[in-house]
Design goal:
The protein is α/β, with parallel strands linked by helices and 297 residues long. It folds into 2 domains: 212 residues, 3-Layer(aba) Sandwich (Rossmann fold), CATH 3.40.50.300; 69 residues, Alpha-Beta Plaits. The protein has 10 helices and 14 strands. Strands 6-7-8-3-9-10 form a 6-stranded mixed beta sheet, sandwiched between helices. It is elongated. This is ABC transporter ATP-binding protein YtrB.
């Protein structure tokens, strides 16, 4: 459905994205995770056709997105900061969208507004950031898009509305087979709804897979050794973080498997216990700058 093939993006001397490859299946919810400056927003803007692709290509249903009105008609795009006509009333924005998008449903907007509760007689400039996000979500959902691209869509929303939004997104997938690409700093929310995630680090793909596969590869291990192995343990391939509390070592690895277990046993490991990690913890550890020459005690 969505193919990102060898995509790079440069602004001036800064390489924002570097040879990105992502495939997103139709009817999937795909999360984009990364630190500030990792390239998330730029990638989503390119998927939505805001920016042209200078290196590589982005295809939706096999066609390029940029300046392709046929494909753009299939896309709903909610930006992290929404720029609307400030002196328009909400009701006027509804009419504006209905005039542009053939598939726009005013009835759908009314149904969504039972949840999001906006005064349609208010002007855009009278709306808070959270209210403007609600408006953007309702307008784009009411387009009945085949692809929905969301950049920090829960920003400014209270807990109840966030829950309602996540339920709506899941319903969109099951009821209409919508493909959703979503970026958020609230990684716990993504873990609940996403089929797959891509973790970006400094403009490159660090991990890209379904969440279960990422959790299979990235593990936290509690290990007890027969003797002090402080000088040798950080030479093992695949260990990305080491902490030591008393005689117990806590190891983070992004290459968990039989070979790693054998290496630890060869160092004298008496106990190797697997401790589960959340997606947020995986993101933190895999993006952490590690001084491999030191062990925290």
């Amino acid at each position: 459905m969505i193919e990102v093939i060898g995509v790079s993006k440069v602004f001036g001397d800064f390489r924002v994205l570097d040879n990105i490859d992502i495939k997103i299946k139709k009817g999937a919810i795909h999360g984009i995770i990364g630190e500030n400056g990792a390239g998330k927003t730029t990638l989503l803007q390119m998927m939505a056709g805001v920016y042209d692709v200078e290196e590589g290509k982005i295809l939706i249903d096999g066609e390029s997105v940029y300046e392709n009105n046929k494909i753009k008609n299939k896309i709903g795009y909610v930006a992290d900061r929404n720029q609307y006509f400030k002196d328009y009333k909400v009701s006027e924005m509804i009419d504006f969208y209905a005039g542009i998008y053939d598939g726009f449903s005013k009835e759908d907007f009314k149904e969504y507004n039972k949840i999001f509760k906006l005064d349609i007689n208010k002007k855009i400039r009278q709306l808070s950031k959270g209210m403007q996000m609600r408006l953007s979500l309702m307008l784009n959902l009411s387009n009945r898009p085949e692809v929905l691209i969301l950049d920090e869509p829960t920003s400014g929303l209270d807990a109840i509305v966030k829950k309602e939004l996540l339920d709506i997104l899941i319903d969109q997938v099951y009821d209409r087979d919508v493909t959703i690409v979503i970026s958020s700093h609230h990684i716990g929310e993504l873990e609940k709804i996403c089929d797959e995630v891509t973790i970006l680090n400094r403009g490159r793909v660090k991990f890209g897979s379904n969440i279960d596969e990422i959790k299979e590869n990235v593990k936290k291990l509690q290990v007890i050794f027969k003797e002090d192995v402080k000088d040798r343990i950080n030479k093992i391939d695949g260990i990305i973080n080491i902490e030591k509390v008393g005689s117990v070592y806590y190891l983070i690895t992004d290459n968990y498997g039989e070979e790693l277990t054998t290496d630890l046993k060869n160092l004298g490991a008496e106990l190797i216990e697997n401790i589960g990690l959340t997606l947020e913890e995986i993101f933190i550890y895999t993006n952490k700058n590690i001084d491999r020459g030191e062990i925290d005690e």
